[in-house]
Amino acid sequence: MTILVFLDPAHPAGRLADAATPTILATDQGVTRGDGVFESLLAIDGVPRKIQAHLARLAVSARTMDLTIPSAATWQAAITTALTAYAATAASPATDVPATDDGGSGPAGAAAAASSAGGSAPAEDQCVVKLIATRGPEGGNSPTAWVTVSAVSPSLAVQREKGLAVMLLERGYDSDLAARAPWLLMGAKTLSYAVNMAALRHAHSQGADDVIFTSSDELVLEGPTSSVLLAHISDDSGVPVKRLITPHLDTGILPGTTQGALFAAAKAAGWELGYGPVTPADLLDADAVWLISSLRLLAPVNTIDGHEVGAAAIRAELTSELAALLAQTL
């Protein structure tokens, strides 16, 4: 089941439409060129999580692309309409494929399972809210914007519970490119995800679940649909010191809303925080590594290119601790 609501000036609260009926023009530049922006966020018990952070990132992405989109208040009204309609029809049999982070299911997502790990709430209380805005039909000056609400894929719970086999893939540019070439829109969440999806398909064909991109000068960037975190645990005169690290944004990666929320919670809990640069060797030397995103939440990385990350017991302990902190932000 998917609920579709268009942002329409004639309908201040949004216009409900049939998601099973074609409603986007064939000439829409979001379809023909991937010219648009989007956000995906989790809603629990009908309440969208980190909505201000997602709306702020959507606005930044749009400004980066010189794209005019509706106001935050207009998006919020449409989101409310969509979530209300979803709740009213949630008891109906699902007819659509549940939304996923990666557009498909790799080896770790082949089976369905329910889990409370990774900072998640019970699956029946969750849904996925997607915000999409395009430049509109070719030759016009009227952006198209809509909201969808759909179920969360059970495969995401599997990834949180079982962990991931990840492979490193070069993204094809050096870590300084974002500053030299702003027209490449690095750091914006655009609809042009063909390369990201191709990377995931390649990983699946090689028996891996997901990907961590690296730059040509061998720095860790991000996953195709996630941010990268790593943890180091050290001893200071018998007192454990826990440090959580993520690659810095200067490399042109997307600022992670869920990573930011977890960092704030971890800092309040006494963790030290660090921001890149991070190398592949740093990942393999870490006590634990995770991929984190708004839908998947916190998924531990078991192996990178076939090499185990840390010790399984420590990885599980740290995942449990951080998942509990992340759950406080949901």
The number of helical runs is 9
Q: What is the name of the CATH architecture of the largest domain? A: Alpha-Beta Barrel
- The number of distinct β-strands equals 14
Rg over alpha carbons:
20 Å
Helix content: 25-40%
Profile the largest sheet.
8 strands, mixed
Low-confidence stretches: 94-100, 102-117, 120-124
Proportion of residues in β-strands: 25-35%
Task: Tell me the series of helices and strands, N- to C-terminal.
Answer: EEHEEHHEEHEHHEEEHEHEEEH
- Structural class by secondary-structure content: alpha+beta
Total number of domains: 2
Q: For this structure, what is the CATH class of the largest domain?
A: Alpha Beta
Distance between the termini: 23 Å
Q: Can you say what the CATH homologous superfamily of the largest domain is?
A: D-amino Acid Aminotransferase, subunit A, domain 2
CATH topology of the largest domain: the name is D-amino Acid Aminotransferase, Chain A, domain 2
The shape is globular
Q: What is the average per-residue confidence, as pLDDT, rounded to a whole number?
A: 90
